[in-house]
Amino acid sequence: MTDKETKNKKPAPDKFMPKKPSGGKPKFNMSIIYIAIILILGVQFFFSGKTPVETTWYQVKRTMLQNGDVEKIVVLNKNKANIYLKKESFQKYKEELGSGYSAPDVNGPHFFFTLGSYDSFESNVKEAIVEYNLEEFPITNQDTYDWSGIISFLFPIALIVFFWWFLFKRMSKGAAGPGGGIFSVGKSQAKLFDKDQKVTTSFKDVAGLAEAKQEIEEIVSFLKNPERYTKLGGKIPKGALLVGPPGTGKTLLAKAVAGEAHVPFFSMSGSDFVEMFVGVGASRVRDLFKQAKEKAPCIVFIDEIDAIGRARGKNPNMGSNDERENTLNQLLTEMDGFDTNSGVIILAATNRADILDRALMRAGRFDRQIHVELPDLNERREIFNVHLKPLKIDATVNIDFLARQTPGFSGADIANVCNESALIAARREHSTVQKQDFLDAVDRIIGGLEKKNKIISIDEKKTIAYHEAGHATVSWLLEHAHPLVKVTIVPRGKALGAAWYLPEERSITTKDQMLDEMCATLGGRAAEEIVFEKISSGAQNDLERVTKQAFAMVCYFGMSEKVGNLSFYDSSGQTDFSFTKPYSEKTAELIDSEIKELVENAYLRAKKVLTEHKEGHIKLAERLLEKEVLFSEDLEEIFGKRPGFDHHKTDDNIIANNTDTTANIEA
Ligand code: ATP
Questions:
Q1: Does the pLDDT value for residue 447 go beyond 80?
Q2: Architecture of 191-315+322-371 per CATH?
Q3: Tell me, which fold does domain 377-447 have in CATH?
Q4: Is the pTM of this model over 0.85?
Q5: Alpha-carbon distance 416 to 442, whole Å?
Q6: Pocket-testing residue among 252, 302, 410, ligand 1, by greatest number of atoms within 8 A of Cβ
Q7: End-to-end C-alpha distance for the chain, whole angstroms
């Protein structure tokens, strides 16, 4: 659960959300640093200007003293003599003193030299005064610090230290998330929701998912009223794993728990444990559990746990991720390490339970696995009810109808349909969202954006029309193929045409059903061959699907007599078949030939159906060329009612949707 999601009660996708201003604090800007450096350098340059010119005692004696040009001599720390010239003599030395910003001015000091011994210097000067018959002038000694020397020595060091500190701070900030410093890099990144940070999502916002909700509600009740269970000897479960396809409401369920449990709720994503520093993941797990134990009873939610919970590698040297495994090991230890009744319940969500480590899934860690599946008709109806609430819908919109038109849709897809339909209605300037807006939103989500202006030649259009009519004809005439809803040759997304079906919602599929579906999928290519006596690349998508289906029938479902009742499917997802196959070369050959035979037979059957109903097929294709979109009523008019098909049943129960595309026809 991301922060953003937690704050947004509205189900619309993130991309439509206005961006929040990023807090009141002004943003730190790198240019401030550059300006500061330039200023400091400038100030240093300014104050370090007017430096005396170095000379020697010989020069001082032979020229300056001999000519009587010296006004005074100031000795610094008994080792550096600064010579001040008389004002009237200044011009004489102009050349030696030079010009420019740092050249000494008339006030001096003008020259300097380093002394060997102060006492001998003093006597030497006195001797020179006598020798040249000069007027007495003062020689004073000043004990001072040479600040400019100290500054110019320290300044570069300070600059380097500052930069180092600055970079380090930035790096550690990035590493430890907002607000974190280098010392908090090993701290848990979990977001805590408690009394002060109310979560407004409740179980009412989660539609359908009755069984999952019941299990989760039980966990909440464990926390609220543990005695009810412990007095009968029951133990509070340590964890529950929500497993299911994307968008089915796992995070939403967890949010509802946070809203309803009235106990502290720690939320983080599996990837929050991952860091570029070694050992941080494990340290964050330790910290998370430490915090959780302090706040017990509480709930810890880890979204997308597969980021750290992936099965540990068998060969530690073969590309295994040590850091991730250390994090997982720490999680395993922590989950087993604390007392069962300490009141910390771990909720986790994943799409990929098959790749999780088995040690993580065992009872005692995640005691419960809650499967959150794609919603069925009734559940879709309930989800529509939730997401239609904020929309202004037309009285003609029937929720039952919408639920039927969206088979195979997840909760997130339904939320998207509702939002998309509102946007379509707004674009059309409707005052309410109408039925057609919803249907267009469904089509857009399944097939992509309609591209009416795509340039397609007349020949190509004809090929597409006959191809699609081929699918429609074969599927209409075969008893077990999916019932057709509409067929179109308007390009949409990547597809140039599509046949839309409403497949039966079923839990098991028979061999006959699979064969008929394969046959209908090959109807497009068969039609091209029969009508034009040449084939095109447009059937690539069909062939891919048919090949996969035939492979699954032979290798997974044991539907080939010659291969037998064998399944090479690996539901654990932990065996790597990419290097070794679980069957011999001989079986591999047999599998290949069986797959080929299955597809070939389906293709011949499709050709037979089309040849027998050539007239109807041509009529359908021509009508499609003319109208671009045809519905099941048009097919019924041409071919009559579907053989052995209960039309009444279609209306009530058949709901899944599917597209069959002729993508890449231009390739
Ligand atoms: P993923 O596995 O990809 O993280 P998820 O299962 O966690 O997906 P959620 O984030 O919970 O999916 O769902 C996404 C959105 O879909 C929710 O914010 C909500 O708007 C909608 N949604 C999903 N399922 C339901 C439901 N049962 N009832 C109401 N809305 C739902």
A1: no
A2: 3-Layer(aba) Sandwich (3.40)
A3: Helicase, Ruva Protein; domain 3 (1.10.8)
A4: no
A5: 9
A6: 252
A7: 41
